[in-house]
Predict the 3D structure of the following.
Amino acid sequence: MAILLCRVDDRLIHGQVVVGWGTQFGVDFISVVDDELSQSEWEQDLYRAGLPDHIDARFVGVERAADLIPTWAANIERGFVLTRDLATMRSLAEQGVLEDIEINLGGLHDAPGRRRVLPYLFLGVEDREELDRLRRTRVEVSAQDVPSARKIGLEELLELRSE
Amino acid sequence: MSNHEVQGILVGHGKLAEGMLNAIQEITGSREGLYPVDNQGLTPEALEERLSELTGEGPSVVFVDLPSGSCAFAARRLQHRRSEMALVCGVNLPLLLDFMFHRTLPLEEVIERLRSHVGISIEQPTDGDSAVPGR
């Protein structure tokens, strides 16, 4: 399987992903699943401008991603799949295309209605509802910002007190 | 502050920005015209907004550490609506010091000066000239 990281992170492509995880895994491509970004060429250029030449960036909407993920997973190239929010990842999980792929919660930051659960994870009521729906898909979910950090499973995460 | 002065914003991971400005302060006795931004805990939108407030509408240079980091992406997004803003990736102290001493020049001249700094210096002892005693 060549989807090595399937991550929810509101920063999408950034240092932890490219340098932290990318160097660890030797990533060939990063696929961003985002309806809005898939329609915005200038924003895609902006992300490509910051990537090393050996990493290919792809931007696809949710519907297209659901078709492509099985192909990416079977491919010899090593890739990451990123979404900026839980709803997008949950949608992919509910479509059954994330079987045997673990979802990584890597960064949801402070915003109105959210409370801090981990230094890199702030959750609001809607986020918790999305996590409940993700749990029902039986896809494995855990929180871990960088490879050296401890992986926190979904059950433990939901029991952590928010501040 | 004169209208011609170029604002310098330093955005880095962890405490890099504040740390580098502390070093600038120690070396020059001043950090005027340079503002640190710490990306920790900020959404991309909040980081872009913070940069927008600090750069203002006038000429500015945003210095970041990594070209593929969230700081650089936030600056690139802002650059889309700021005609007088330059982004410098791979910040280091010589670069910041040069900027500090020349930020009263027009933005284009400031950028030309910064371009001349691109590259790194690696120095090694040559054979028979080891810098390490006993080698």
In short: Residues 7-115 of chain B form a domain with the Rossmann fold fold (CATH 3.40.50.510). The beta strands of chain B are 7-12, 34-38, 60-64, 85-89. The interface with chain A takes residues 13, 40-44, 46, 66-70, 72-73, 76-77, 80, 89 of chain B (CB under 8 Å).
